[in-house]
Amino acid sequence: MRLLLDTQVALWWLTGNKRLTKPIRAVIAESDCYLSVASVWEVAIKHRLGKLPVAPQVFRDEMAAAGATMLPIADMHAIATSGLEISHGDPFDRLLLATARIEHLILLTADAALLVQGGPDVMKAD
């Protein structure tokens, strides 16, 4: 399976958060996992605002060390956000969903709004 980890799931994976069940951890371990630069950007913003203790470069480096492939943001990912038929207001989540669709990945998320509106491109993470 080819998974795009959303930012929250990636953070949970790195920190061993119990919200990721053993079956989901097994899916992650057995899959090709990708991390969008959008997630690194989101962590950078939240770190600067004091909402996350992890620095963006540490997040990026630890995700790479854990085996995730970094996925750059491409113009086609940004353009695809305009065609999403979901009302999700978070621009990072919209970009991640669009990226998953363009790159033929499954977005692994715990975001209820994405799970409801994301369709077959989205998988529940908790």
Topology:
Layout (H helix, E strand, L loop, with lengths): L1 E4 L1 H9 L6 H9 L1 E5 H12 L7 H10 L3 E3 L3 H6 L10 H13 L2 E4 L2 H6 L4 E3 L2
Protein name: Type II toxin-antitoxin system VapC family toxin
Organism: Candidatus Methylophosphatis roskildensis
Pfam family, one: PIN
Describe it.
- Residues 4-113 form the PIN domain.
- InterPro entries: PIN-like_dom_sf (IPR029060), PIN_dom (IPR002716), PIN_Sll0205 (IPR041705), TA_system_RNase (IPR052919).
- Pfam families: PIN (PF01850).
- There is one protein chain.
- It is globular, with a radius of gyration of 13 Å.
- It is built from 7 helices and 5 strands.
- It has a single domain (2-124), classed as 5'-nuclease (Rossmann fold).
- Helix 3 runs antiparallel to helix 4.
- The model has no long low-confidence stretch (mean pLDDT 92).
- Helices cover 52% and strands 15% of the residues.
CATH structural class: Alpha Beta
Instruction: Provide the domain count.
Output: 1
Write the element-wise H/E pattern from the N-terminal end onward.
EHHEHHEHHEHE
> Which bin fits the share of residues in helices?
40-55%
Assembly category:
single chain
Radius of gyration, rounded? 13 Å
- Structural class per helix/strand content? alpha/beta
In total, how many beta strands? 5
CATH topology value: Rossmann fold
Number of helices: 7
CATH architecture: 3-Layer(aba) Sandwich
Largest sheet: 5 strands, parallel
Low-confidence residue ranges? none
Mean pLDDT across the residues is 92
Q: Please state how the strands of the largest beta sheet are arranged side by side.
A: 3-2-1-4-5
- Tell me the span between the first and last alpha carbons: 17 Å
**Beta-strand residue fraction:** 15-25%
Quick one: CATH superfamily?
A: 5'-nuclease
User: Could you say which overall geometry the principal axes of the C-alpha atoms support?
Assistant: globular
